[in-house]
Design a protein that fits this description.
By secondary structure, this protein is an alpha/beta fold. Helix content is 30%, strand content 17%. The structure holds iron/sulfur cluster.
Length: 301
């Protein structure tokens, strides 16, 4: 067994023997496979996005809305390669518009193997989406070159103090920017489906969640992003759905409230001024009801 260095944490441990920062062994562990209707409009579109929620996470943010499965605390269903291929085929048959791999980083090698196999056998019928925290290494993304149609990275923080404080990753911004550049190298400017012009078929959709008390970091992040990539090459989703219920046990009291309309609109205005196109959210999106019920394990397709 090779030591795991799949992500920038570079734990260099044998996951058949111990767990790394992501909290996962080498077993491919999935919390939920189901159509999901609350992604951005060109991802969920009419019939839903085919989400596959993996357990564990290599970032483990203080305010994570998927805490129930992301902290190495969830008992996911363990899939063999052939079983997950069968599940992905069933998911496609349910009519979803894409296969949306959520928090996939720590299983990227297995995912590359599965998608490569499905592609060579003609089993991939819809675009694939790689839905990630953005804390990715370029070497790992290169394993996925030609297998992922839509990259959907978060871009969470500019300040290294903030990324250290909330995600134990002081190098988050520079790592995530290099990852986004690699995603753009692979997929280029975003494209919509030729026969369904509001359904995304390839490209990079960057998500930014506005945090309470950190509007200035959001504005700095977007400004730096606009200097480092061409804003017209990507879609940007500025999210207002920060939900304090998932951070009420945090020692950081600034996370215990929702964002204000002022915080959100100033960040959206800056995104627009910088030339980004994409999506904003209604304020009622800041609700735990948009988080899937992970207790309904796997049975929704
Ligand atoms: S994938 Fe997990 S074990 Fe591997 S380097 Fe990243 S955090 Fe460590």
């Amino acid at each position: 067994m090779n030591p795991c260095n799949l992500c920038p944490r570079k734990c260099n441990i044998d996951r058949s023997q111990s767990l790394g920062f992501c909290g996962e062994s080498e077993a491919l562990s999935v919390a939920r496979i189901a159509p999901h209707f609350f992604e951005e409009p060109p991802i969920s579109y009419k019939k839903g996005s085919g989400t596959v929620f993996f357990t564990g996470c290599n970032l483990r943010c203080e305010f994570c809305q998927n805490k129930a499965i992301s902290r190495g605390n969830a008992e996911g269903k363990i899939y063999k390669k052939s079983e997950l291929i069968d599940a992905l085929c069933s998911l496609q048959e349910s009519g979803v518009h894409n296969i949306n791999l959520v928090t996939p980083t720590h299983f990227a090698d297995k995912i590359a193997d599965i998608l490569s196999d499905m592609k060579s056998r003609g089993l991939l019928k819809v675009p694939t989406v790689y839905n990630t925290s953005g804390y990715e290494s370029v070497e790992t993304l290169r394993m996925l070159d030609g297998l992922i149609d839509i990259y959907m990275p978060d871009l969470k923080y500019f300040s290294s103090e903030l990324s250290e404080k909330y995600s134990h990753a002081p190098n988050y911004f520079e790592v995530a920017i290099e990852a986004i550049r690699e995603m753009l190298r692979q997929r280029g400017k975003y494209k919509y489906n030729e026969s369904e012009p509001k359904l995304l078929s390839s490209g990079v959709l960057i998500r930014h969640l506005v945090l309470p008390s950190h509007r200035k970091d959001s504005i700095e992040l977007l400004s730096r992003l606009a200097e480092l990539i061409n804003p017209s090459d990507v879609l940007l989703s500025v999210m207002s759905q920060y939900t304090p219920e998932f951070a009420l046990d945090s020692k950081y009291s600034e996370l215990h409230r929702r964002i204000t309309s002022f915080e959100y609109t100033t960040v959206c205005d800056k995104a627009s001024e910088l030339g980004f196109n994409g999506f904003t959210q209604a304020k009622e999106s800041a609700s735990a009801r948009y988080t899937p019920d992970f207790a309904k394990n796997n049975n929704d397709i």
